[in-house]
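Comment thread on ticket #2218

A.B. wrote:
> Attaching the input chain for the structure job we discussed in standup.
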Amino acid sequence: MTPTAADRFPTRHLPGVTVRELPPPPRSAWSIIGPGVIAAGVGLASGEFILYPYIASQVGLVFLWAAAIGIVTQWFINMEIERYTLATGETALTGFSRFWRHWGLVFAIMVYFANLWPGWATSSATMLTYLFGGDATWIAVGLLLLIGATLTLAPVVYTALERVEFVKVGLVLLFIVVAVLFAISAEAWGDLPTAVTAPEFPTELGFALMLSALVFAGAGGGQNLVQSNWIRDKGYGMGRYVPRLVSPVTGREEAAPDSRGFVFEPTEENLTRWRRWWRLANREQAVTFALISFVTIVLTSLLAYSTVYGVPGLANSVDFLRVEGERLNETVGSWFGTLFWVIGALSLFAAAMGIVDYTSRLAADVLKTAYLPRFSESRIYFALVWGLVGLGCAILLAGFDQPLILLVISACVGGLMMFFYSILLLVLNRRVLPDQIRPRSYRVVALVWAVLLFGVFSALTLWQQGDRLLDWLR
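C.D. wrote:
> Ran it. Output below, let me know if you need it in another format.
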């Protein structure tokens, strides 16, 4: 019997895959734009609005090199995640679970730990208090409930999320254009080359902050893994055969196939289609995710450098944005500081929605694939959405401030996840995919680099933060 492409797939923990033809790629690249915009939109929060501007306010523009390294590294990681889903219709987590049933659960738990504190909803609420006053806790609870309702009532979840993130990215880019015209100083533009000519590693700010900046430049942590789910719902490659998540209230459940994924035989026609799909996917990620993320980090850092560089006592939190907005009111005009807070509040709200979505989406995929095959993935997803919303509301209403343990976990878990899944991606794509579509040498080198980068930084952060963590536990 002649071996098929499906014979490479481990079947000890999950059923084998089905051989099907690779769907033809679209003629226009416009029809596949979306997953990279969502990745950039959800990521335009921690690194772009807080971390890199804060670093610029403390030490200048000398750490922007890290944003370039972080984003380029994540682009290679994202493309290996997309490679597997393009070729199989399965998510990367499902692929990992083929080697060990519980890999998906491990990563889902890590994502929950990283996103346990509803930080972005709280940050958005805090920025709204700068504009309208009120109690940030109750506003944040209202925002969480709005996120749950929006994700529940959208007929197709991916489509709703895509529209929200498109609007957010558009507003952020519009604000940046206005900032370039009115707020970024000539001195800041003149000092920008120091990011290349005099790069520094400001260890005085702490390894936890440096790791966070590297991990969350662009996306980071579990958000990279969910590229599988987003491109599948967009209909990339073999993902076209997989049903999308729909609302249990307003959507219509699509006919679901069995729990197996798919693979195509490397015929000349399929390989021609694959090459077109691969080029389109690479370009979409390069332009919508990598370019937008990097330009935004550079320009928001320039804005912070122009307004609050050298101001003592700035907090590495959303309160930093209050001071920046006040300075913009003073230097440019009250309209500009208000616009800054409005865009920031909307941006952080959209990020919070994306985080609730991808945390629940990853966990739903894992539970459906490995533990609850008879249940609808859409219904599992919505139960998890409301569970996360309810947990966030309970934490806020209980009056807990963000404790040190969550700060340390947030700084470390994302890097640890990327360390582990970079190794697994390398094994998965080199072992099970047909020879003709496996990652080539320079992409293998990029994944090895990611393993070293995030492994070393995670270890350094745990070493530096270990004493503080032990003190808190005592």
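A.B. wrote:
> Thanks. Noting for the ticket: Strands lie at 18-19, 262-263.
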